[in-house]
Amino acid sequence: MALLDLKDSIKFIIIEVEENGTAVLTLNRPKANALSTEMLAEVKTVFEEIAKDDSVKGVIVTAPGEKFFVAGADINGFLALDGMGGREASRFAQSCFQAIEDLEKPVIAAVNGYALGGGNEIAMACDIRIASTKAVFGQPEVNLGIMPCFGGTQRLTRLVGAGIAKEMMFTARQVKADEAYRIGLVNKVVEPEELLPAAKEMMSVILTKSPLGVAACKVAANKGADLSIADGLNLEADLNGLLFSTADKNEGVSAFIEKRDAKFTGK
To answer: Is 141 one of the catalytic residues?
Structure first.
């Protein structure tokens, strides 16, 4: 099955695939894109399919309009959850976002508006975040008597450092796009009308590079964050050894020596 074959069965994600292999996923659950269990399951299904679809080279995750990226989890069912139910809901959402992080293809979040709670957490599971000037980020879960539990305590700390992450989580303070850029939560801030074009432009640059090299960089960066420096360096060397056995390495080095653009095949 190809990614596009899912279009008729997916309710809350608009799927488009461009000629260069960029899949644009538009999260679309009125109102405010609150993450229901069904929507989370669709995220997992779509990313698992992308992992198997060789025609998809990279992914952009965005949302319609300028007000909401994802306003958070759908909290309507929280009162019915006991301790075990809360843990299971957390583990399920974590597995859905882990499918994004584990994808060995580049993923850019184009954040157009409020990215709160699960919205910030799904953006952080992506590799790169580009924000509209109207974007706002935050982890407001303590206002509900709970905590970020879709990966937020872990990814936010790794992205912005423990001090700032704890401040954001403890106070539930919302962070506008310019501050998000300053603290390292987002890579770039653009005007609303430039958001999707900027994400596509960055992806088009990435897709000119060796897909095997990009995948290896992603694996080394993600897995290495949980390793000692010695083990991380070993992982880096092992992955580089694999890359040196590929046709892409020969093509890239030859193109450099011959002063021409490389034509990578992912082999």
So the answer is: yes
Q: Residue holding tokens 């992982």?
A: 235
Distances (CA, A) of 266 to 99, 121, 205: 21, 30, 16
Q: What is the DSSP string of 247-266?
A: HHHHHHHHHHHTTS------
Contacts of residue 55, Cβ cutoff 8 Å, sequence gap at least 6 = 2, 3, 17, 21
**Catalytic residue (one of 16, 38, 42, 141):** 141
Per-position DSSP letters for 199-237, written without gaps between them: HHHHHHHHTTS-HHHHHHHHHHHHHHTTS-HHHHHHHHH
For the chain, give percent helix, strand, coil, nearest 5: 50, 15, 30
**Helix, strand or coil for residue 36?**
coil
Which one from 121, 179, 193, 201 is the annotated catalytic residue?
121
List per-block mean pLDDT (blocks of 10 residues) for the chain, which spans 267 residues: 86 96 96 92 97 97 95 86 91 97 98 97 98 98 95 97 98 98 98 98 98 98 95 97 97 96 94
Number of DSSP helices (H) and strands (E) in the chain, helices first: 10, 10
> Is 193 considered catalytic here?
no
Contact 89, 81 (CB under 8 A): yes
114 contacts: CB under 8 Å, gap ≥ 6? 32, 67, 68, 69, 70, 71, 135, 136
Residues in Cβ contact with 65 at an 8 Å cutoff, skipping those fewer than 6 apart: 112, 113
